[in-house]
Design goal:
about 200 residues, alpha/beta, Arginase, Chain A, five-stranded parallel β-sheet, about 35% helix, about 20% strand, globular
Length: about 200
């Protein structure tokens, strides 16, 4: 994120994760997998008008977690919101929030329900399906995605490579978004660089 900021200035952020990751410390440490977005806010890396969590759920330490998170500019689309509103409505909200800003996409694999991604260190019940995540990512076509990450895949906890397969497909979609760039038509084909869409064509 620092590298993207050094090149593009303040960046929009879409953070797909079961957890907020805006805690001040995590087990007493300043820099951990639970603190990166507070640090990004403190360092002036993120555009606070264009930051959003997607798929958030799970336990909190207290109401201050949400108060701090909101003070950093974050809005939240929970996994329950995705289920109730549907993919298209979520995509529209994300696109409106980001606009034409340079965008960093961070995806923690535990945004997926453990049924779809058991191989992670901090699984939380009630998560998104791999289909929902992939469709939301495809809906970001035409945004100015400048950098991304996929984190917290833990092969030692995986079963039948379920998590690895999901993560690989997420990476493919993110690379495709970067390759297509901000000039891609937002309503164009969304299934990778080839643009092939199931159920269409001959």
């Amino acid at each position: 994120m620092r590298a993207a900021h050094s090149r593009h200035g303040k960046i929009a952020l879409l953070h797909f994760d079961a957890h907020l990751d805006t805690w001040d410390t995590y087990f007493g440490a300043e820099f951990t997998h639970g603190t990166p977005f507070r640090r990004a806010f403190e360092e002036g890396i993120i555009d606070t008008d264009a930051v959003m969590h997607v798929g958030t759920r799970g336990p909190l330490y207290g109401t201050k977690d949400l108060e701090d998170d909101s003070s950093f500019g974050f809005e939240i689309v929970s996994s329950a919101d995705v289920m109730r509103s549907g993919v298209d409505a979520v995509v529209q909200a994300l696109r409106e929030r980001v606009g034409d800003r340079p965008l960093y996409v961070s995806l923690d694999i535990d945004v997926l329900d453990p049924a779809h991604a058991p191989g992670t260190g901090t699984p939380e019940a009630g998560g998104m399906t791999s289909r929902e995540v992939l469709e939301i990512l495809r809906g970001l076509r035409g945004l100015d995605v400048v950098a991304c990450d996929v984190v917290e895949v833990a092969p030692a906890y995986d079963h039948a490579e379920i998590t690895g397969i999901a993560a690989a497909n997420v990476v493919y979609e993110l690379i495709t978004l970067i390759s297509l760039g901000p000039d891609a038509a937002p309503d164009g084909p969304a299934y990778g660089i080839s643009g092939a869409r199931y159920g269409e064509g001959e």
